[in-house]
Write a structure and sequence with these properties.
Elements: H1 2-34, E1 39-56, E2 59-74, H2 93-121, H3 146-151, E3 155-157, E4 165-170, H4 175-178, E5 186-190, E6 193-194, H5 198-207, E7 213-218, E8 221-226, E9 234-237, E10 240-242, H6 249-281, H7 291-304, H8 306-324, H9 332-345, H10 351-381, E11 397-400, H11 404-415, H12 419-441, H13 448-460, H14 462-471, E12 476-479, E13 482-485, H15 489-496, H16 503-535, H17 540-549, H18 552-570, H19 576-601, H20 608-636, H21 642-647, E14 652-653, E15 658-659, H22 663-697, H23 701-707, H24 712-724, H25 728-755, H26 757-767, H27 772-791, H28 801-822
Antiparallel strand pairs: 1-2, 3-10, 4-5, 4-9, 5-6, 5-7, 7-8, 11-12, 12-13, 14-15
Helix pairs in contact: 1-2, 1-7, 1-8, 2-6, 2-8, 2-9, 6-8, 7-8, 10-11, 12-20, 12-22, 13-19, 13-20, 14-16, 15-16, 15-19, 16-18, 16-19, 18-19, 18-25, 19-20, 19-25, 20-22, 22-25, 22-27, 23-28, 24-25, 25-27
């Protein structure tokens, strides 16, 4: 039964959310048709596109794969085709504003209609009367106390009641408790205003200004309190009723109008309070929730009945309407704000800057949603264990995740760290981003949207590493009877480097590596697929092709991880454990960066330099996010006590009226990470990008094969070709890819190795100088090599599809010629 309820809740969540979004989009659709704007597509669900249901006029009606809501696509909606008939951009400003606001209007209309139905329907018939049947052996037992009856859904608050408001509880330590208010009392007036139900009492308390005196009249007497930033702390309930209540249409219309205004006012007030809380405290309040909390509320409402689901739908519709009207770029309100500015200036705004603003707004909203969703998930699972696929009697795959400690850590990190520290970290990271981006990318006329997309993809590449090596790093995983102590490859390398390591431990490490790289691969594929689909840069078909060709990446890095693991298991040199761990860090990070570059940018390569540049963009995104986390966690928070962090005094001590940290605490790490750490990411990814570009285009492959016809490398490649029945050009491509992966991993790993504290001590004992004297020449040498790769003449060749095809034909001819030279061709059977 519980499973059926859960499935019903999932269907209800998808149904409610989809209905609200479809009604919103239908508003845009209808307004566009009224004003003569061509609607190119009305989609049911979100992309990728599934199939075209039918076409009517200019509009395609499509069914898409993600069953959440829908969308409309207008001709000229992004400012293009301004001079063509039927274009959104060609319409007067007031008409475009009407089209933009129509979605919000329809959400409010939907909420209003649902409120009327709710008041007229009267809810569920829950009355337990002598002549009625009820599925309980002793229904009267449920009515012995109000609390038990309410819990079972028989009695519920009556919003139309005119009786006294019951004080059901008082929050300990609150203003109400300090004023002497006790549970069980009845509230009659708030500051001289008679209150008939809990809604009126709540509204009166909320509207009272801060620091004002509130006089409350109870049946037991008068109480006075001064309102402050704290909550009053009263748990109120209206008189209870049995069963539902019904209203006539005129009464329902009146109550619906009043309730819609009340809910809208409360939401606007709550948003204002939220902004004030963030500005004052510098953190997102705990009570702010996202999709997870909404799904949880829908599940609870589904268990209560259809009328509770109707209430949830009403509240969500009002929320969707109000939130969409906020003047944030990427929302309807943001587009309306740009249209108002255009109307005031009497000229169109720059499409480029408007698109940048909407892209920035979209990134902000996505980051906020990820942050709030992560907080909700940690609140949902933070106190226990999660079992994935536990099959009774056959534990195929069981993951036991003890998230209590991690939940507390991340919750504190995101809720007790002032936002000012993140802004500071972001500004500091932005400095190196601008400088290095200008140095490497200033001469390339790339599409700006691709630059932004690649950078965002690089930022996302940090997430799977955090999930797999952090969230799942210390989780117990049982697969095929073997227990794996988490997916943290770095700790596995450390364990292999100890003198007591066994072959069984090596086997566990190999299996762990496979799981870790496959998990990172899948998470990145999902993240970049969503990013590309939402940005319109990929279709399902093109992404499937990239996915099918990218399987070599996890396989290559899995092989490299095995090599590193075997070396860690076999070697007993000084600092060999540090070296192997550093190489593994390099392998994991370069793997993640390469994947996002490959998934998001592969179809945009025109030449080898494009591959290098896109790899650098991804590296800049990765380094940007990594530097923010480092600046906040390692610089701002490291010298702080838990009490400092909890009180918000880590950045600024309000009592002492001074900053906790001096500038020198931040300056040296900032300069080091901005110059050397960011440059290391650029160099390693750029080198990998070059070799991947060579493997992608094989620009110099024909000359290279001709040059080495009589060499050992040619014999090895042809041997692979013969044994595994692979074309020679494919073997050549894989050899280039493998070379790039090794070069990136080794360079990145060497930097991490030299940076390690143990290595620094060892270097000082050898040369009497700190490791910085090794890091500087290592970075300079890597930078010079990357500039050399950039300047190679064949890198700038623009490869058209025809030229690639001609090259492949030539390579096939060379394959046959080389096979004849080395007599590796299979003899033709004779009769």
């Amino acid at each position: 039964m519980e499973l059926l309820t859960l499935l019903g809740s999932i269907v209800a969540f998808i149904g409610i959310f989809s209905t609200l979004v479809l009604v919103h989009e239908w508003g845009h659709f209808t307004a566009a048709r009224i004003f003569g704007v061509r609607v190119l597509e009305f989609g049911l669900g979100l992309p990728p596109k599934g199939r075209v249901l039918f076409k009517k006029g200019d509009t395609e009606y499509t069914l898409n794969w993600l069953p959440l809501g829908g969308f409309v696509r207008l001709f000229g909606e992004n400012g293009e085709n301004r001079d063509e008939e039927g274009s959104f951009a060609s319409k007067p400003v007031w008409q475009r504003i009407c089209i933009a606001i129509a979605g919000v209007f329809m959400n409010m209309v939907l909420a209003f209609v649902l409120l009327i139905l709710f008041f007229m329907a009267g809810g569920r018939p829950l009355a337990v009367l002598p002549d009625t049947a009820y599925p309980f052996s002793q229904p009267s037992y449920l009515l012995q106390t109000e609390s038990m009856a309410r819990e079972e859904g028989i009695l519920r608050p009556n919003p139309l009641a005119t009786g006294p408001v019951q004080i059901e509880g008082v929050v300990p330590g609150s203003l109400a408790e300090k004023a002497g208010i006790v549970a069980g009392d009845q509230l009659l007036e708030v500051s001289g205003l008679a209150v008939k139900n809990s809604t009126e009492a709540r509204d009166a308390l909320l509207k009272a200004p801060i620091r004002s005196e509130i006089t409350l009249r109870f049946t037991s007497g008068m109480r006075t309190l001064v309102k402050s930033e704290e909550t009053v702390g009263l748990v109120l309930t209206s008189p209870l009723m049995i069963g539902g209540y019904t209203l006539s249409f005129p009464d329902a219309l009146s109550y619906a109008t009043k309730e819609l205004g009340t809910q809208t006012t409360l939401l606007v007030s709550a948003l204002g309070d939220l902004g004030g809380d963030i500005a004052r405290d510098g953190m997102i309040p705990e009570e702010v929730g996202g999709p997870v909390k909404i799904a949880e509320a829908v599940h609870m409402a589904n268990k209560a009945g259809w009328d509770a689901l109707l209430v949830i739908a009403i509240l969500l519709s009002v929320n969707l309407g109000v939130l969409n009207i906020l003047p944030i770029p990427a929302l309807d309100g943001g587009r309306i704000a740009f249209l108002l500015i255009e109307g005031i200036l009497r000229r169109p705004l720059s499409r480029t800057w408007e698109n940048y603003a909407h892209m920035g707004g979209y990134i902000f909203l996505m980051a906020l949603m990820l942050l709030v969703t992560g907080k909700d998930l940690l609140g949902l699972f933070g106190g226990g264990f999660i079992g994935i696929f536990p099959v009774e009697g056959l534990d195929i795959l069981v993951i036991s995740m003890d998230l209590s400690g991690l939940g507390t850590l991340i919750s504190d990190f995101f809720t007790k760290t002032p936002i000012m520290q993140y802004l500071t970290g972001g500004l500091l990271s932005m400095v190196s981003l601008i400088i290095w981006g200008y140095i490497f990318l200033r001469k390339e006329p790339e599409r700006k949207d691709l630059v932004i997309l690649s950078f965002c993809a690089g930022v996302l590449s940090v997430i799977p590493i955090f999930i797999v090596l952090g969230l799942l790093g210390n989780s117990q995983i049982k697969i095929l009877g073997m227990t794996i102590p988490g997916l943290n490859l770095y700790s596995h390398i450390d364990a292999l480097a100890t003198s007591g390591a066994t072959l069984e431990r090596l086997g566990v490490y190999v299996l762990t590596s496979l799981l870790a790289f496959v998990a990172i691969y899948l998470i990145i594929a999902v993240l970049i697929f969503i990013l590309d689909i939402l940005s319109g840069e990929q279709t399902l078909e093109s992404f499937e092709k990239i996915l099918s060709k990218s399987i070599e990446a996890p396989l290559t890095f899995f092989i490299l991880s095995i090599i590193v693991g075997v070396l860690a298991f076999s070697l007993n040199w000084t600092l060999s454990d540090v070296l192997m761990r550093s190489l593994m860090i390099g392998a994991v990070e370069e793997f993640a960066k390469h994947l996002v570059m490959r998934f998001s940018d592969e179809n945009k390569f025109r030449n080898i330099n494009d591959a290098i540049e896109f790899a650098i963009l991804v590296a800049l995104g990765f380094a940007f996010f990594e530097n923010i986390l480092y600046f906040v966690d390692k610089i701002w928070l490291a010298p702080c006590t838990p009490q400092d962090i909890a009180s918000g005094a880590c950045l600024f001590d309000k009592q002492a009226n001074k900053y906790v940290h001096e500038i020198n605490v931040l300056l040296v790490p900032f300069l080091f990470r901005s110059v050397f750490s960011t440059m290391t990411h650029i160099i390693a990814s750029g080198i990998f990008g070059y070799f991947y570009g060579v493997s992608y285009f094989a620009a110099d492959e024909i000359k290279e094969l001709s040059r080495m016809q009589n060499g050992l490398q040619a014999r090895i490649l042809l041997l692979f070709h013969k044994v595994f029945h692979l074309p020679t050009n494919l073997v050549m491509r894989e050899q280039q890819f493998f070379t790039g992966a090794i070069a990136a991993m080794v360079y990145h790993g060497l930097f991490n190795f030299v940076l390690d504290g143990e290595t620094n001590t060892y270097i000082q004992s050898l040369i009497g100088r700190p490791s910085m004297f090794v890091i500087v020449p290592l970075t300079v040498a890597g930078g010079l090599y990357l500039f050399y790769l950039f300047k190679r003449p064949e890198n700038s060749i623009i490869w058209s599809k025809r030229r690639v095809l001609e090259t492949r034909i030539k390579k096939d001819a060379i394959d046959a010629d080389l096979e004849n030279r080395f007599s590796l061709r299979t003899p033709t059977p004779r009769a």
